[in-house]
Amino acid sequence: GNPIASAAGLATLDTYKEEGLLTRGAELAPYWEEALHSLKDARHVIDIRNIGLVGAIELEPRAGEPTKRAFSAFVNCFEKGVLIRTTGDIIALSPPLIVEKGHIDEIVDCIRTVLAETD
């Protein structure tokens, strides 16, 4: 491979180790899971799943307009300062390993508000 890319990769791994980011992510995973699954009764939610700090919220599709509901949630979250990803009618979430509990609360509160406002 490319020596510069290899050096960058090794430096990244060193940073993960020095800052304890993988341990931090593992420690925050239960908090993330509880917060994320608190949305299970939110409007339009079919399913919520996660592993570690990766999560997905499956939304019921709009009749005749698949993917539109999740895209509307994407736009509304973006306007409120929270960036989410969508794939079809699924909101995909993967916060950075430097995330804090307050950030998790903001993300989940924003999604809860947006889902309540989304038709």
Descriptive overview:
With 119 residues, this protein is an alpha+beta fold. The protein has a single domain (29-117), classed as Aspartate Aminotransferase, domain 1 (Alpha-Beta Complex). It contains four helices and four strands; from the N terminus they run H-H-E-E-H-E-E-H. It has helices at 3-18, 21-37, 68-79, 101-117; strands at 45-51, 54-59, 85-87, 90-93. Strands 1-2-4-3 form a four-stranded antiparallel beta sheet, covered by helices on one side. Helix 2 (21-37) runs parallel beside helix 4 (101-117). The radius of gyration is 17 Å and the shape is globular.
Largest sheet: 4 strands, antiparallel
Strand order of the largest sheet: 1-2-4-3
Distance between the amino and carboxyl termini: 49 Å
CATH topology grouping: Aspartate Aminotransferase, domain 1
Q: What share of the residues lie within helices?
A: 40-55%
CATH superfamily: Aspartate Aminotransferase, domain 1
**What structural category arises from helix and sheet content?**
alpha+beta
Strand content: 15-25%
Number of domains: 1
Write the CATH architecture name: Alpha-Beta Complex
Q: Categorize the overall geometry.
A: globular
- DSSP, total strands: 4
CATH class: Alpha Beta
Element order, helices and strands? HHEEHEEH
**What low-confidence regions span 5 or more consecutive residues with pLDDT below 50?**
none
Radius of gyration: 17 Å
Mean pLDDT: 96
Count of helical regions: 4
Q: Helix and strand layout, with pairings?
A:
Layout: H1 3-18, H2 21-37, E1 45-51, E2 54-59, H3 68-79, E3 85-87, E4 90-93, H4 101-117
Antiparallel strand pairs: 1-2, 2-4, 3-4
Helix pairs in contact: 2-4
